[in-house]
Amino acid sequence: MQLAFGHLYLGIAEGALAAAREIITKRRGSWFRSPAERYRNDPFVLRLVGELDARNAAVAALAERLAARFDEVVALGSGVTAEARGEFAVAVARLKVASSEAATDLAHRVFEATGSSSTASSHGLDRYWRNIRTHSLHDPVDYKKLEVGDFYLNGTPPPPTLYT
Asked: What confidence tens digit (pLDDT) does each residue in 5-25 have?
């Protein structure tokens, strides 16, 4: 289930960025001090969207790798060791940290790329922020960071629970 949440967070981020792209590409003019004629060619918009897209791509690669690893672990059946389970649980915790932080940051910063008019409820961009915050606070990411840190420094895997 925790792996699914990591993918959910990634999906929220991807949805927010796609919605922002639609808003950005429909805007005609650019900021009056911009060297670009079209908003979507503004260097600051390009830089921010490039940064957010690159981070999403990195999280997506991690999610894909863990999905493949999940299949390998499940294929072991009863041969899964406590060590393998612990290592996989920590890997999933890393994904949850990376995906929730990337999605939260993106859902917040997407407004920088889309401008003040994008805050109108008709665009619905606020739903991405609300969705990621609701999920990431329900299962606090700070505890995932503790699990990752404890494993990295002390080799201690998280105990098996519904949250690992």
From this structure: 999 999 999 999 999 999 999
* Whether pLDDT at 139 is above 90: no
Asked if 134 contacts 77 with a C-beta cutoff of 8 angstroms, the reply is: no
Q: Is 115 left (phi over 0), alpha (psi -120 to 50) or beta?
A: left
* Structure-token pair, residue 22: 């639609």
As a whole number of angstroms, the distance between CA 4 and CA 13 comes to 14
Task: Note the pLDDT tens digit of each residue in 42-60.
Answer: 999 999 999 999 999 999 9
- The SS3 of residue 20 is helix
Residue with the two structure tokens 């969207």: 49
Q: Please classify residue 28 by burial: count the beta carbons closer than 10 Å to its beta carbon, then call 0-12 exposed, 13-18 middle and 19+ buried.
A: exposed
What is the spatial distance between Cα 116 and Cα 108, in angstroms, rounded to a whole number? 13
Cβ neighbours around 112 below 10 Å, total: 14
